[in-house]
Model the fold of this input.
Amino acid sequence: MLVLLDTNIVLRSIEPRHSHHGVAIGAQRKLVQEGHSLCVVPQILYELWVVITRERTDQLSKTGLGIR
Done:
């Protein structure tokens, strides 16, 4: 079965210091081990790009990762 990954799952997977990183990776591993195929759609990639390129305004900001 195809499983669509949500933007938040993808974000947590690429952010190793986030408290939900392990959960996101673990969930994806389990799905793959059970024979599912993981997929994303263009909208998810767009949302991911918006978040990772949005400037982080301060140390506590959770609105962007500030990656350029």
About this structure: The first strand starts at residue 2 and ends at 4.
